[in-house]
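User: I'm putting together a teaching handout on how multi-component assemblies are represented. Below are the sequence lines for each component of a complex, exactly as they appear in our records. Could you produce the 3D structure of the whole assembly as structure tokens, so the students can see both representations side by side? Please keep the chain order the same as the input.
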Amino acid sequence: MNRRELLDSARGLAAALVAATALPVLLSWWRTARAKDPAGKAWADLGAASKVEDAAWQRRTLSLERVNRWRRELQEDVVYLRRKGDALEALSAICPHTGCLVKPRAEGFECPCHKSRFDAEGTSLEGPAPRPLDRLECKVERGRLLVRYRRFRPGLPQQDPIDS
Amino acid sequence: MKLVSGLRGGLGVLAATLFLALLTSGWGLMPSYVPTDREAFDSVLYLRKLGGAGAFLRAVHVLGASLLVSVGALYLLATYVAGAAPREKRAWFLALALFGSVLFLCFTGFLLPMDQNAYWGTLVRFGIIETASGVGPPAADFLRGGGALNASTLPRFYALHVGILPFVAAALLAALLWDARERLKTIGLSRLLATALLLLLVLYALSAALPAPLEPRAAPGDTEYVPRPEWYFLWLFQFGKYVEAWPWVRSLLLPALAAAAVVAAAFRTQSETTRRSVAGAVVVGFVLLTGLARYDDRALPAKPSHEQALRARAGFLFKEECSSCHGETGKGDGTQAKTFDLAVPDMNGAAFWKDQGDDRMRDAIRNGKGEDMPAFGKKMTAEEIDALVVMLGDRFRPK
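Assistant: Of course. Below is the structure of the complete assembly, with chains in the same order as your input.
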């Protein structure tokens, strides 16, 4: 074996060593990233349904006990509620563009981050938002308003749920 | 051309010095930093309150990072203008990889303080990565450790920031310096080290004058906060506004074209005039877009520091919770005060402050006092009560 051949084999061996050390690391990072947390309680109790009287959107914070990786915790999320005739409606405050929280304005909503605007139905009016604000399922049980809280990936024209 | 080569060498020495300062200042921050979403902010705040070398090194770290990005970009630009990219292919690619790892270090380090800026800025950055159709969402999940920011995000960023990327960057820098050893020898080791020492002292002086910012604790329910990118990415932010309808142009096409262009620079021999025009266009584009972004944001209110926000909060709490009895001026003449049997004490008088320690005051606010002073321990956090005590002393205590 001459010097050249020795160098070539050393190169190959070094590459194999790098691959053998890096690959399990990458797989470990990938595995922990793809792990889904168990679905927590789906429906959040937002109190007496009769308290939502207004036809204009009102901000409410809902708290749901969920699993966040290695710990169980109370997570707080912002939703907007309104009454439309007999029905109650709920919108997630998460902007479908990059995930900031929208705030109400005279008619509809505005995102503070990139100035996406939405009308009172949550439809995107102007700005970079790729889809309307995400509607959340509501129901009234024994006088209590229950909202099914879900999160969807920002940045996409379609709804892609994040949690399992 | 000689001027450009000289400038390039100077920038290289400066970049290496900044890297050394960032590495060592990072070591200074590590013993008090806790990389969990619940404790990170308070551990940074602790270091800030403690002051001294820890707080100083945080300023070195923050300022040094910002400077290294600009110096690195200028070094690459000078290398290109000097026509060295095709001549020294290996050095060009090593420098590009080093610059990339520095940007990645900035991206991961940005989240670590977990203040408002860190939280919302990182949230938006992930939102932007996700608009790069196809590759974006899996890349975002890999970095973030899941489909949304979660408890494992900060440990991942910390691992990249202190455990992986510094090794990569140090190895790339070592390779660059090794390749340049003959050129460095002609300059002389003493002269190089003296320059590095001088630059380090200048950085230290600047850092002593510019304490590192810390905004209020991340508030994930905030609907008012307006995050903005670091100044060196404002141009991209501004460019994104013009291609709003096609977000993949900003998130995928432009980065891919930029990467292709800098790689291609090593394989094309261009005339000096061309190189100068290209570099000029890059600088003008950067300045113009940054200026436009700043102009668009001219009405944006300044962001308060943690301490400023807390002071404002204490003022608000005094007005909302205390002034109805204690009065706006602390005289004890609020509208509710008349309904009590005992007089509400005048906080402007020396008698009120006699034997009044901070502990006693905190206790009175938290647990109430006598028949009329209610307990506020459930309405206010310990941090807010502390801020209120400081505010009352500043505002009412006779000098």
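A couple of points students might notice: The interface with chain B takes residues 29-30, 32-37, 59, 61, 68-71, 76-78, 93, 97-103, 112-114, 127-128, 130, 151, 153-156, 162-163 of chain A (CB under 8 Å). The beta strands of chain A are 43-48, 58-68, 71-84, 87-92, 103-104, 109-110, 117-118, 124-126, 135-141, 144-148.
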